[in-house]
């Protein structure tokens, strides 16, 4: 499969799960969706489109959703805050009831969702797409208080703005240190795109500065492409230290802006960005769908929980085999889950589930790279479709890198319109 063929297949793959438009007879079922991001908002919109008599309620605490994808562009001054923030008027117009509240607990036996307001909602099916929470006990010295000094910025919002202010205030000649966790975590290439765009910002505004990446892994998504781009674009400004080179951070002193690695090396920063280990969002644990790993195991065919009947879990919170935790994947999974629920609740046969993902990364304006894959359910497991997974070629000319940068921007515009009408 050529790169062009793969991209064309991926562009169509998001609609593979679509059933015929159906109209339920009799009393309509009620589907509750927790989380208004790439996965949850997609389920709500497409379930209303494909089974319009099903009542759909979306529970999301924020009135505007700020995306992690393209938040790195904001950090580097390449995007405005408004351009990565999305409201819910489009979903309301599509017939989705929106409740801006925080989901606090789930009673799986009585099928009740408890909100922080005291309200209790009944559901026939529950979809949980809560994203991630940080494992505050996983890294010595790093907790919520430490994050106010050494932000993770791995949930877009106040932390993202804090990190940008710190970056802007950093002196020329300063050191930006990033601690990167072991897998799995949200958006495998995300830290490396962030490093690239911060290096771009530093080169433009603070050219005597340095960026140090301390990594708990020896390999990462699109590694060779990133290393090639960093060498060409940033030279010695950016240094990546792998696990084998003593890059695993085990201790954080946020007040001193200092980290310590597994073999005792200490690194002092002017700006310290600590990305800690992660787990499924809190409500997944409360619902009983997360296992000892902190993530939620799901059925490959429809992302139904393997632990609690009547609940589906998707997006970053799910244990989804080889499918990365990305916005593209969550949107695709949302369509599969919407199709599964639409057919199940209206008495039709479920469609065959296929899944797709593309992750675009920008290393500098006009310099983009990507990785793509297609996945399917096989004997209860999610597997790569043979010969479908591919990355941008290492020997690509500048025109190809520029095209990838444009494709990434077009993807973001398209998926934002698909989900939130923007």
Quick structural summary:
It contains eleven helices and 25 strands. It has helices at 3-13, 40-50, 71-75, 89-93, 144-147, 158-169, 190-205, 223-234, 282-287, 327-344, 398-420, and strands at 30-34, 55-59, 65-66, 85-86, 97-99, 103-107, 112-115, 120-122, 125-128, 132-134, 175-180, 210-215, 238-241, 249-253, 258-261, 266-268, 271-274, 278-280, 296-297, 311-313, 318-319, 354-364, 367-378, 381-384, 390-391. It has a five-stranded parallel sheet, covered by helices on one side. Strands 13-12-11-17 form a four-stranded parallel sheet.
Keywords:
FAD/NAD(P)-binding domain, alpha/beta, globular, 422 residues, disordered N terminus, four-stranded parallel sheet, 2 domains, 29% helix, 11 helices
Task: Describe what you observe in this structure.
- With 422 residues, this protein is α/β, with parallel strands linked by helices.
- The chain has two domains: 3-131 and 281-420, FAD/NAD(P)-binding domain, CATH 3.50.50; 144-274, FAD/NAD(P)-binding domain (3-Layer(bba) Sandwich).
- Helices cover 29% and strands 25% of the residues.
- The chain has eleven helices and 25 strands.
- It has helices at residues 3-13, 40-50, 71-75, 89-93, 144-147, 158-169, 190-205, 223-234, 282-287, 327-344, 398-420, and strands spanning 30-34, 55-59, 65-66, 85-86, 97-99, 103-107, 112-115, 120-122, 125-128, 132-134, 175-180, 210-215, 238-241, 249-253, 258-261, 266-268, 271-274, 278-280, 296-297, 311-313, 318-319, 354-364, 367-378, 381-384, 390-391.
- Strands 5-2-1-9-20 form a five-stranded parallel sheet, covered by helices on one side.
- A hairpin with a 4-residue loop joins strand 15 (258-261) and strand 16.
- Helix 2 (40-50) runs parallel beside helix 10 (327-344) and helix 7 packs parallel to helix 8 (223-234).
- The longest helix has 23 residues, at 398-420.
- The radius of gyration is 21 Å and the shape is globular.
- The chain starts with a helix and ends with a helix.
- 48% of the residues are buried.
């Amino acid at each position: 499969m050529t790169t062009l063929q793969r991209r064309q297949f991926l562009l169509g793959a998001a609609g593979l799960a679509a059933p015929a438009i159906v109209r339920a007879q009799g009393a309509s079922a009620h589907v509750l969706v927790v989380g208004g991001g790439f996965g949850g908002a997609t389920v709500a919109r497409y379930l209303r489109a494909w089974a319009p008599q099903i009542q759909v309620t979306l529970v999301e605490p924020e009135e505007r959703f700020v995306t992690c994808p393209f938040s790195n562009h904001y950090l580097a001054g390449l995007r405005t805050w408004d351009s990565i923030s999305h409201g819910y008027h489009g979903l309301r117009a599509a017939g989705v009831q929106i409740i801006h509240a925080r989901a606090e607990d789930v009673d799986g036996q009585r099928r009740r969702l408890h909100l922080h307001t005291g309200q209790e909602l009944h559901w026939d099916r529950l979809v949980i797409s809560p994203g991630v929470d940080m494992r505050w006990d996983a890294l010595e010295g790093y907790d919520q208080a430490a994050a106010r000094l050494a932000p993770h910025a791995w949930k877009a919002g106040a932390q993202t703005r804090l990190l940008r202010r710190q970056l802007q205030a950093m002196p020329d000649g300063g050191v930006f240190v990033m601690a990167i966790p072991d897998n799995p975590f949200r958006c495998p290439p995300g830290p490396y795109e962030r490093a690239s765009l911060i290096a771009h910002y530093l080169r433009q505004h603070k050219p005597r500065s340095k960026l140090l990446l301390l990594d708990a892994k020896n390999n990462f998504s699109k590694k060779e492409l990133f290393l090639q781009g960093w060498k060409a674009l940033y030279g010695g400004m950016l240094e990546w230290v792998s696990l084998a080179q003593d890059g695993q951070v085990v201790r954080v002193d946020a007040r001193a802006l200092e980290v310590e690695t597994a073999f005792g090396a200490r690194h002092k920063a002017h700006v310290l960005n600590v990305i800690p280990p992660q787990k499924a969002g809190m409500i997944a644990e409360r619902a009983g769908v997360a296992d000892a790993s902190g993530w939620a195991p799901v059925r490959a065919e429809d992302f139904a929980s393997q632990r609690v009947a009547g609940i589906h879990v998707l997006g970053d919170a799910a244990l989804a085999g080889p499918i990365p935790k990305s916005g593209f994947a969550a949107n695709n999974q949302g369509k599969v889950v919407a199709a599964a629920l639409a057919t199940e609740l209206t008495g039709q046969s479920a469609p065959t589930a296929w899944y797709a993902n593309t992750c675009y990364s920008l290393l500098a304006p006009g310099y983009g790279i990507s990785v793509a894959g297609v996945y399917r359910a096989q004997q209860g497991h999610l597997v790569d479709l043979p010969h479908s997974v591919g990355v941008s070629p290492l020997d690509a000319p500048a025109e190809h890198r520029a095209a990838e940068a444009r494709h990434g921007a077009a993807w973001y515009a398209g998926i934002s319109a698909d989900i939130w009408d923007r």
